Amino acid sequence: TITGKNINLIGSGRTDAGVHALGQTANFKTEFDLDINKFKYSLNSVLPKDISIIEAQRVSEEFHARYDAISRKYLYLFIKHKSPFYEPFAYRYFYNLDSDYLNRLSKYLVGEKDFTSFARKSSEPEDKNCTIFNAHWSERKGFVFFYIEANRFLHGMVRTIIGTLMNAQKNNYDQKYIIDVLIAKNREAAAEAVPAKGLFLFKVKY
Questions:
Q1: Strands 129-140 and 111-114
Q2: What per-residue confidence (pLDDT) applies to 52?
Q3: CA separation for the pair 198, 92 (Å, rounded)
Q4: Is the separation of the CB atoms in 199 and 75 below 8 Å?
Q5: How far out from the chain centre does Cα 85 lie?
Q6: Contact 202, 54 (CB under 8 A)
Q7: What's the gap between Cα 177 and its chain centre?
Q8: What is the C-alpha to C-alpha distance for residues 148 and 161, in angstroms, rounded to an integer?
């Protein structure tokens, strides 16, 4: 290894299979006296082509990439046209997505709530409460973007939220549908999750 020893790498959190990361954060401890700039370039030279180190810096010995995170922000990318370049990284949805409509419904997800209905049933902690700080849809040049930021997310939560909001628009449901899904605390009350390929871990805040 570059450090001369095996290290224990701690990531900021897991992502579902097929999900990408634009802003993953990780830390490790080493007794090796690293030149940070040289280390970044050396590491990038041996990493596979789909992984890139954007920034490296020294942190306190107590820093923990997962437990010290204040919030995590995800991006989901939709594309309106066929593109071989974006196909692996965006969901091509064949119907119109109304950002204004979806933003109105998304407001009812903001705040501290029990997101049991939006989580996969297996291997989840007992505490299903999460605090969503913001959830916003926007459109630009053939793309639709959905950003969501929270203190924590449950397994499959973001993709199920998106699928449920899209189902609301498809059937012209109002906010009562979103509220009823939350109250149900049952995964079967929510809609099908969107494909993983359009989802990105966008940023982790500390």
A1: antiparallel
A2: 95
A3: 9
A4: yes
A5: 21
A6: no
A7: 23
A8: 10
- Is residue 107 classed as helix, strand or coil in its secondary structure? helix
**127 has pLDDT over 80:** yes
Query: What is the rounded distance in angstroms from the CA atom of residue 127 to the CA atom of residue 107?
Result: 22
Helix (H, G, I), strand (E, B) or coil at 91: strand
The answer for residues whose C-beta is within 8 angstroms of residue 103's C-beta and 6 or more apart is 136, 137
Q: Which residue has the tokens 């609301």?
A: 168
**Which positions are annotated as active-site residues?**
16
Enumerate domains of the chain plus CATH numbers: 71-205 (3.30.70.660)
∠124-26-110 over CA atoms, to 5°?
A: 50
- Structure tokens that stand for 171 in this block: 């059937």
The predicted structure's pLDDT at residue 94: 87
Residue 125 pLDDT more than 80?
no
Judge contact between 89 and 77, C-beta under 8 A.
yes
pTM of the model: 0.91
Residue 135 backbone dihedrals phi, psi, to 5 degrees: -150, 120
Q: What is the dihedral of CA 6, 12, 14, 19, to 10 degrees?
A: -110
Question: What's the average model confidence in pLDDT over 168-180?
Answer: 98
Largest CA distance in the chain: 60
| Banded pLDDT at 126 (limits 50, 70, 90) | confident
For 18-156, where are the alpha helices, taking DSSP H only? 36-46, 99-106
- Check: CB of residue 96 under 8 Å from CB of residue 117: no
CA 21 – CA 160 distance, rounded (Å): 18
